[in-house]
Amino acid sequence: MSRRIFIDTNIMLDFLGERHPFYDSVAKIATLAEKGKLSMVVSPISFATVNYFLAKFENPRIAKEKLRKFKIICEVCALDEQTIEKGLNSSIKDFEDALQYFSATESNCDLILTRNAKDFKKSLLPVMTADEFLKSLINK
């Protein structure tokens, strides 16, 4: 069974927005997902946030097409009332981070991939950057 990697909003934006220097590492991880070597899981809140930012800098139609293609290689987890309640009652300051954290735990993800580990400092799941994750694969 492949590892389930939760991709946070910034990682998704790095990939779809082709933001350097982060893009190359995330593109390698996306390639692993395309080959079935791991499963990428994202929150629906990330789709909405990334669409908003991409549409500001690109044609909105192109932004939606990028999201459509990305959805092929990832699983969008559920965001239900229970997850929202956990996020609202959480000590995690940023509500979007709280929703992503609880979505990741309820989706049985193995780790959270983020650019800023401080966003998930109270996480019970391992938290890594894209580069750290790729290095961990090499060291196995």
So what's the overall shape?
globular
What is the mean pLDDT? 88
Order of helices and strands: EHHEHHEHHEEH
Q: Walk across the major sheet and give the strand order.
A: 3-2-1-4-5
Number of strands: 5
- Uncertain residue segments: none
**Residue fraction in strands:** 5-15%
* Total helical segments: 7
End-to-end distance: 16 Å
Report Rg: 14 Å
Report on the biggest sheet: 5 strands, parallel
Indicate the structural class. alpha/beta
Helix fraction? Answer: 40-55%
Characterization of the model:
The protein is an alpha/beta fold. Helix content is 54%, strand content 13%. It has seven helices and five strands. It has helices at residues 9-16, 23-34, 44-57, 60-72, 81-88, 95-106, 130-138, and strands spanning 3-7, 38-42, 74-76, 111-113, 127-128. The chain has a five-stranded parallel β-sheet, with helices on both faces. α3 packs antiparallel against α4 (60-72). The longest helix is centred in the middle third of the chain and has 14 residues, at 44-57. It is globular and about 35 Å long. The chain starts with a strand and ends with a helix. The model has no long low-confidence stretch (mean pLDDT 88).
